[in-house]
């Protein structure tokens, strides 16, 4: 009996010592994490995280690598917009782009930074619910392939990409996704949209997709910015790279999109869409009048040219409806309720709620002749104070639905 008791005592001591050496790691509120890999967790994980806290973790991996973050566990107060308790992941430290905001229990795929730094911020309000999160980070090669939350490198001859949650439910709020499509030299990329439904705004200021020529975003290489529920026309790259970025804010969401891409020979053409996309050849430009003259308005009112030939000659291009008109000496000061803007230039646009309008001076009251009710395609120039100016030389016609595709294609043209 004494021998058995002694054996049990030795076993208990051994287990106690072993357990002390195998204690769970203690996760604190934030910190600086370095190296090629590691673990991080919310304060007190797997216990319930504390209320009214903000914890910041800064991850730095070796130069030449990027950070891949994978959530092993996620259990935060659930809310469709993640307004209360949430985890934000940023592509860098200061004034960096947010890669996503997460809450609830649905874990995202891997999030990958563009450089060797990533910042993770967890915020909780006065009411808590859940055990927080546990995540692992590792240093990977830039443009890492594989399963990701969204975005990534696409270099196969053809493929597809889509917003997170497609097609089961709306894309989440507060995400940024970047796809880099790389074709072989001497090939270009055709991008087509099967379905497209992103929060609508005349200027795509909230949720939007932007497509760039080349391998990184820049104003000079931007092809187009898209939102709403009308799929953009097919897009062709100028070279062998396209960069696509999708951003959603923290308010309304929608179905999202699915896009398909295909590599094409550089000299490939398809009716109506030459590659590379270049400006439509303009008709010889006449001097553009920005002030009234008797001689100008005595000319015969005859429309010359096409939408394509006038697009690059115009400072602004929009569709809209005349809502008010007032005589101003020999001209008409008109206000148009804007339906869509395809080229803004320096045009001054007023906004009241979701309604947008612009003031346009029609120099000759009878040319072009517009009236209340119809929707017009309006092309013109911009005068002082940002007001639009339309003379008989400009292009104004009633809008027809079949012209929407032509305008969408032209909006991708760099004049």
From TrEMBL:
Keywords: Disulfide bond, Glycoprotein, Repeat, Secreted, Signal
One function term, GO molecular function aspect: collagen binding
Disulfide bridge positions per record: 150-177
Pfam families from the UniProt entry: CUB, NTR
Record carries keyword Disulfide bond: yes
Secretion signal span: 1-21
GO cellular component: extracellular region
UniProt xrefs under InterPro entries: CUB_dom, Netrin_domain, Netrin_module_non-TIMP, NTR_PCOLCE, Sperma_CUB_dom_sf, TIMP-like_OB-fold
Gene3D superfamilies: 2.40.50.120, Spermadhesin, CUB domain
Domain NTR positions: 297-415
Protein name: Procollagen C-endopeptidase enhancer 2-like
